[in-house]
Amino acid sequence: MSSNLEYRAWRVHERNGEYVGGVETCGIEDLPDNDVLVRVSHSSLNYKDALSASGNKGVTRSFPHTPGIDAAGEVVEEGPANNPARGHQVIVTGYDLGMNTPGGFGEYIRVPENWCVPMPAAWDPRHAMIYGTAGLTAGLCVKKLLTMGAKPEQGKVAVTGASGSVGSVAVELLSHLGFDVVAISGKDELAGELKGLGAHEVRGRDALSVEKRPLLRPEYAAAVDTVGGGALTELLKRIQPGGSVACCGLVAGTDLPTTVLPFILRGVNLLGVDSVEISREEKQDIWSRLSGPWACRHTEASARSIGKGDLDEALKAFLEGRSHGKIVLDHAL
pTM score, two decimals? Predict the structure, then answer.
């Protein structure tokens, strides 16, 4: 492929202390010197993308930069191991993509071979990006709960941040697997949608209001926590003996002001979930499940597509807490 090929990307520039994003023309020669060149057809919007676009140096160190921690498309130049081979469809998520490596908001990415996961046979790139990192994370959380022995007959399972991109997939997936799901969300207006995903009950943030006591009456057999902070502290107090909480988020803060009592008096398990640095094999396992027996049909049907020109407003909505549901970036729009 010609090294002077041009393509379009949504790039963020730092200008007088402000971060401004827009569509511009880039050159293939400006991409990193990695093995595999992928023509990206679709990406997926995530909270981390919004942080990158707003200049958060904990996510992206230098600008100009192309965000997009998710990408799906066709391999057009393969690496030395020919895995994946040219012409194959792949999913790329996690690692450094969209953080300090140009990401999926551009029509091309160049990445190491081991970042690329083969596209499941049942999916096309848009399907893959309906789930993206959020769906992968939700799947990893549910898999960990099942590994720890969670079963529907044990009682209610809570999902915090249930209207978010991770939480909503977790709600539908757990319901699909037969669990009695309690969706906890600060967005009262989305209660109907959460019930449509399969939640048996929807509770507001006050369901996890601060209590001074270190342990409370057990309410939940297990939980997926996508927010962290004080919500996770209060959730741990309400888990049944031997139950587990899969933890994957921090929008409510990184502090965890708790005691050891839930762990040593009730045997509660706090399970950390990372979707960024895990192996290609672990990712492939979750993609295989989500494209097969774990498919979330409501999530797939309700996802909406946008073009690069719509990214600025969509990312601001993430930061302002106005975003919900799955948003797919379609480079053809």
Answer: 0.93
